[in-house]
């Protein structure tokens, strides 16, 4: 039984490998999350050709805060490029706060959104 639980955990981790979580991205009542994600990658990360499988809002609704935007990419290399570019934006903004790149750990970086100046964080697991 423990072996099955371990296998299930491994499969779940593998399925989340291509996911990105965007925190703080402004939310409208009616929106196309996939189009928002494409636009974010095109404008902020200069990746208009990033292939996305799906995107949707996730997490509990809280007053005054947008739900997280969960994005599943088709290609793991696209995710790596996005995370690397996010780090470059962060280190160019705050060079004293830079840290070495490690893809295996959770990455929590932030980027100012032009829409209202909200803090937007991109996380990977």
From TrEMBL:
Composition bias, Basic and acidic residues: 93-106
Superkingdom of this protein's organism: Eukaryota
InterPro entries: Transposase_22
Disordered as annotated region, ranges: 84-125
Biased composition (Polar residues): 107-125
Protein name: Uncharacterized protein
């Amino acid at each position: 039984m423990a072996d099955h639980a371990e296998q299930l955990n491994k499969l779940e981790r593998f399925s989340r490998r291509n996911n990105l979580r965007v925190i703080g991205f402004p939310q409208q009542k009616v929106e196309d999350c996939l189009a928002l994600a494409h636009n974010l990658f095109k404008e902020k990360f200069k990746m208009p050709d990033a292939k996305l499988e799906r995107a949707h809002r996730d997490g509990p609704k809280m007053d005054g805060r947008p739900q997280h935007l969960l994005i599943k990419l088709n290609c793991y290399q696209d995710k790596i490029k996005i995370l690397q570019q996010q780090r470059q934006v962060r280190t160019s903004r705050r060079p004293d706060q830079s840290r070495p790149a490690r893809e295996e750990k959770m990455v929590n970086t932030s980027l100012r959104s032009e829409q209202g100046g909200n803090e937007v964080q991109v996380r990977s697991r």
